[in-house]
Design brief:
The structure is a single chain. By secondary structure, the protein is an alpha+beta fold. Helix 7 packs parallel to helix 8. Belongs to the glycosyl hydrolase 13 family.
C-alpha cells in the first residue's frame, strides 16, 4: 500500500454528523491499491461492549484515489474509531496518532467524534431535495403589462444586447404560471428584481422595492402567493457584494468625499472616488466602476443588508436566497446571514454563487448549496466527446467527494445559466446530445435547475446572447423537446431513488464514451444506459433479476442468462427500473 496516499481528518467532509443519530466517515486511499477497509468503532467509555469492526464501501474514485465511506450509528452519540486497511497479506492501521502496522490500543490513540450535538448538525431544507428549479430572468420571460415598459423598449424576440429592453415583468410571469405547472416545475429562481438602472438588475439602487419596470412590491407578493398556491417555491437573487453607483450612500461618497458619513460603507482606495486610467479608485465587482463593492465588515452595512434579507423573507414568505458573487463576501457576514435568514424561515434554501470548490461555505454555518458550475463543465465536456467514460467517472467521483452527503443531496445543478452559453448551443445544436445531458441532470444527485426556454429549444452564446426572450408562439417552440423535459421531470418527481438514492457507475471504461450507472434506494433501482457515440451500440452488464422494465414506457426488459444487453441508437439512452420488494 502507498501509505502517503492515505488520508483522513476527524472533521469537515471526512467525519461529520449526517443527522442527530448518524456519523459519516470517509477515508482516502490510492486508486486500486487497497482491497478492503474496516472502521474499528466504539465508545471510549465503554469500548469492549460497544466495539464493532464495520466494512466500509468504496463510494467513489477519481483519477488518483479511491474514497471509502461508512454510516455509523453510535450507541451514545459519540464515537472513537480507527481504520484497518488490507491489501493481500498487508494490513495497515490509521488512527489519530498516525499510520502503522500495529493495531491500536483503545480507547487511546483513536480518532474521536466527541458528541453529536443536534445544534451542530448541518440541516438542509428537505423540500430542496424534491425541487425542480426553473431560472427566470424577468426582463426576458414575458411582457404582461406594456404600461410599465422602459423607454425605447424593443419588440419581443429581438437581438439581446447588454443595454436593451424587451419589457418582461412580473405580470408576464403570473400569466404563465400554469405553463410552469404543466411542465412540472415546483421551484423558481429569479434573477434580481429590485430597482436598478440595468436590464439584468445586478446593480441595485433600492433593495426594498421592486423595479418599476417589473411592477411593484404588492405584485411581487401576489406572484409569490400564486406560486405557493401551485406548490412552487420562490428564491430571489441577493446582490450583497456590490451595489449600483446610483445607490444613495455611494452617491453621498461621490458628493462629499472623505467627509461622507458613508465613507466606510465601501473600499475607497483613493479620493476622489473616480475612474483613473481606466481603473476605479475604489473596489468594485470586477473592474466595473458602476458596481462599487460593499465593505460587509462594516457594522452599518451588515445591519442594512441583513435587514434586507430578513425583510423579504418575512414580507413575501420567501423560500430562499441565491447569493451573487458569494465568494467575494467575508465569511463572518455569511455566518450572520444564515442566522438571520434561518430564524425568519428555518426552511429557507441558501444558494451561494461560487464557481469552484466551495467546502469552506458548506460546513453548516453558511450556505446550504452552491451553483454547481463544475458539474456543468464536466457533463458538457463528456457529452461533447472531450473525455472517455473512465475520465468522466473520475470527474464525477471527485465532485461527489467534495462535500458532505446532505450538501450533495441539494447541490444546485444546472447545465447553463444567464452567465453561460445556452445548453443547445453548448452541444452544437445537437438535440441528441442535449437529451443525454438532461437525462444525466435529472438522474444525478442534487437539485436540478432549468434555464428558462431550454425546454422549447432556445439557443444562444454567452452573455448577452444567452439572455434571449422566451419563445411563446407554439409554432416556434420545439414541442417534442418540451415533452421530453416534461417526461424527465415527472420521472424524477415520482421516484425518491432519483433524488436521494445512491449513485454509482456500473460501466465507465477508458477509450469508451459509453456509460452505465445506477441510482438505488430501499424501494427502487434505476440503471441508466448511455451511448455517447455516433454509432449504434449494444451495452452489456451482469444483472441477475428478471423484474426490469423501461422506466419511460413500462415495457418489460429481460436479461439473457444473467446479462442485460441494451441496444442504443447513436447518442441514445435507456432508463431501466425495478421495484425493490
Amino acid at each position: 500500500m502507498l501509505l502517503e496516499a492515505l488520508y483522513h481528518v476527524p472533521r469537515d467532509k471526512w467525519a461529520y454528523a449526517y443527522n442527530p443519530s448518524t456519523i459519516h466517515l470517509r477515508v482516502r486511499t490510492k486508486r486500486d491499491d487497497v482491497e478492503q477497509v474496516f472502521a474499528m468503532t466504539g465508545d471510549k467509555y465503554d469500548w469492549q461492549a460497544t466495539y464493532q469492526e464495520l466494512a466500509m464501501e468504496k463510494a467513489a474514485h477519481d483519477a488518483m484515489f479511491d474514497y471509502w465511506e461508512l454510516a455509523v450509528k453510535p450507541k451514545y452519540k459519540r464515537l472513537s474509531y480507527a481504520f484497518k486497511l488490507m491489501a493481500g497479506s498487508e494490513t495497515v492501521y490509521m488512527q489519530d496518532s498516525g499510520i502503522g502496522y500495529d493495531p491500536p490500543t483503545p480507547p487511546g490513540e483513536l480518532y474521536e467524534f466527541p458528541y453529536i450535538h443536534e445544534i451542530d448538525v448541518f440541516k438542509v431544507p428537505e423540500w430542496a431535495k424534491q425541487a425542480v428549479f426553473y431560472q427566470i430572468m424577468p426582463e426576458r420571460f414575458a411582457n404582461g403589462d406594456p404600461s410599465n415598459d422602459p423607454e425605447h423598449t424593443e419588440p419581443w424576440g429581438g437581438i439581446p444586447k447588454s443595454d436593451n429592453y424587451f419589457g418582461g415583468d412580473l405580470q408576464g410571469i403570473l400569466d404563465h404560471l400554469d405553463d410552469l405547472s404543466d411542465l412540472g416545475i415546483n421551484a423558481i429562481y429569479f434573477t434580481p428584481l429590485f430597482t436598478s438602472p440595468s436590464n439584468h438588475k445586478y446593480d441595485t439602487v433600492d433593495y426594498k422595492n421592486v423595479d418599476p419596470q417589473f411592477g411593484d412590491n404588492d405584485l411581487l407578493k401576489q406572484l409569490v402567493n400564486a406560486c405557493h398556491e401551485r406548490g412552487i417555491r420562490v428564491v430571489l437573487d441577493a446582490v450583497f457584494n456590490h451595489c449600483s453607483e446610483l445607490f444613495p450612500p455611494f452617491q453621498d461618497v461621490l458628493k462629499y468625499g472623505q467627509n461622507s458619513k458613508y465613507i466606510d460603507w465601501f473600499h475607497i482606495n483613493e479620493f476622489p472616488a473616480s475612474i483613473k486610467n481606466g481603473v476605479p479608485t475604489y473596489d468594485t465587482f470586477g473592474f466595473f466602476g458602476n458596481m462599487p463593492k460593499f465593505n460587509t465588515a462594516n457594522p452599518d452595512v451588515k445591519a442594512y443588508l441583513l435587514g434586507v434579507a430578513e425583510y423579504w423573507i418575512k414580507e413575501i414568505n420567501l423560500d430562499g436566497w441565491r447569493l451573487d458573487v458569494a465568494n467575494e463576501v467575508d465569511h463572518h457576514f455569511w455566518r450572520d446571514f444564515r442566522q438571520i435568514v434561518k430564524k425568519a424561515n428555518p426552511e429557507a434554501y441558501i444558494i451561494g454563487e461560487v464557481w469552484s470548490d466551495s467546502l469552506n461555505w458548506l460546513l453548516g454555518d453558511q450556505f446550504d448549496s452552491v451553483m454547481n458550475y463544475p458539474f456543468a463543465d464536466k457533463v458538457l465536456t463528456f457529452f461533447n466527446g472531450g473525455i472517455d467514460g473512465y475520465s468522466f467517472s473520475n470527474d464525477m467521483g471527485a465532485l461527489i467527494m467534495r462535500y458532505p452527503q446532505q450538501t450533495n443531496e441539494v447541490i444546485f445543478n444546472m447545465l447553463c445559466s444567464h452567465d453561460t452559453p445556452r445548453l443547445l448551443t453548448s452541444v452544437g445544436n445537437d438535440k441528441r446530445k442535449l437529451k443525454l445531458c438532461v437525462v444525466f441532470l435529472f438522474t444525478y444527485i442534487g437539485t436540478p435547475c432549468i434555464f428558462y426556454g431550454d425546454e422549447v429549444g432556445l439557443s444562444g452564446n454567452g452573455d448577452p446572447d444567452c439572455r434571449k426572450c422566451m419563445i411563446w408562439d407554439p409554432d416556434k417552440q420545439d414541442r417534442e423537446l418540451y415533452d421530453f423535459y416534461k417526461l424527465m421531470i415527472a420521472l424524477r418527481k415520482k421516484h425518491n431513488a432519483l433524488r436521494e438514492g445512491r449513485f454509482r457507475f456500473l460501466h465507465a471504461d477508458s477509450h469508451d464514451p459509453c456509460i452505465i450507472y445506477e441510482r438505488i434506494d430501499e424501494k427502487g433501482h434505476f440503471t441508466i444506459w448511455m451511448n455517447n457515440t455516433e454509432k449504434k451500440r449494444t451495452l452489456s452488464h451482469p444483472m441477475n433479476t428478471n423484474d426490469w422494465c423501461d422506466a419511460l414506457t413500462g415495457e418489460r426488459v429481460m436479461p439473457d442468462k444473467g446479462t442485460m444487453n441494451i441496444s442504443l441508437d447513436s447518442y441514445g439512452y435507456r432508463i431501466l427500473f425495478r421495484k425493490i420488494k
